[in-house]
Amino acid sequence: MNTAFRTPSAFDAFCTETYRIMLNCLARPGTIGQLTQPTFLGAPAPITNAHGAVPANMYALGACMSLIDQETNFVLGCDNAWLLQGHEATSWVHVRTNARRVAPQDAQFAYLWDVASLALIPQLPRGSLTFPERSTTVFCAVPEISESGSWRLRGPGIDGSASFGTDEKTMRQVGFIQQTRTQFPLGVDVFLIDQAGKCVGLPRTTRIELIAAHSVRGG
Length: 219
Description:
single chain, 8-stranded mixed β-sheet, Rossmann fold, disordered C terminus, about 25% helix, 3-stranded antiparallel β-sheet, alpha/beta
């Protein structure tokens, strides 16, 4: 029997590598993974709002696109508003993945262009007691992630506690993530990905709190 093998495309290789990194970040919350940028995809046009032009973080958008295809769906958010079906960025993702844009309350995957859009997370599915896995996986572009800081995590996959840091703007939005973790096993899994491709996974099982700066200095 002759068996034909197809050489993996650049996107296939990217998806495999990205999935491995993200899986490790979810299994070990607080671990900072380093994603690669899918430069071969190009990038959608920046979105213009009252604050200027907001470009896509292609580390974060690429990670989201690595999980979606014609059998899944997605939604995009920017400046605390959902992008509509006919938006240029929505069409850009659809053409490259064949995934469908749906209403936020039905979305399996969501990409948030900025931390202001974390306020949209409570509108996304959290699953049900019968099917808790029917929830949204969220990818949010953030300015910066660091090895140490005010985020303290506890829960499965963490030995005691783990910590990492982000910019102040992202920390001010943490409450919107915490809102989705009050009715376990319901909730959403969140990936925070910065402009350098640093990635942190926050599964629904992870409890999040922010510790004051003086507490960090005092141990």
